[in-house]
Amino acid sequence: MTRLFDVVLSLAGLILGVPVLVPLWLLGLFDTGSPLFRQERVGRHQTPFILVKFRTMRPGTASVASHLADASAVTRLGRILRRTKLDELPQLWNVLKGEMSLVGPRPCLFNQTELITERASRGVFDARPGITGLAQIKGIDMSTPRLLAETDALMLREMNLTSYFTYILRTIGGSGSGDRIMPR
Questions:
Q1: pLDDT tens for residues 79-101?
Q2: 3-class DSSP state for residue 40?
Q3: pTM for the complete prediction?
Q4: 168 Cβ neighbours under 8 A, 6+ residues apart
Q5: How many angstroms separate the CA atoms of 32 and 56, rounded?
Q6: How far from chain centre, in Å, is Cα 53?
């Protein structure tokens, strides 16, 4: 049932979002010369997929989890995009393609072995990864792999249409702080 809502809402978001997506793409072009960021992530059943976001860091920055990234790599536009979560909008394409859901566990990198192990032991990879979810609403990021995996598993066990829409609305309303980047 949520797949139907994923398709309808992501398609509507991409179409209605054009007045926001195009200017952000242009601003990103001037900011970094490369407005979109593509990165291989762990998907459903641990299948790789290419996640698409607006670029928030300088090109060439190491491909690591946000909490391990160098804060100085984040551009001025990138700070705004992260704070407002607008960097996530291109992932609507991943949702439309069926690689992601609007609501689910945030997709991790393949080098985050501790998180992968924790999630695998709890069956988290049986679900599509999502743009938002319970962990994001609670401000739990990938720097605490066990807590994140436990929270993801809890969310998936209790997922229903009400919680699906609640997580989406709370994210749009500004709940959660996004992945933190530690100053160095």
A1: 999 988 999 999 999 999 999 99
A2: strand
A3: 0.90
A4: 9, 102, 103, 132
A5: 9
A6: 8
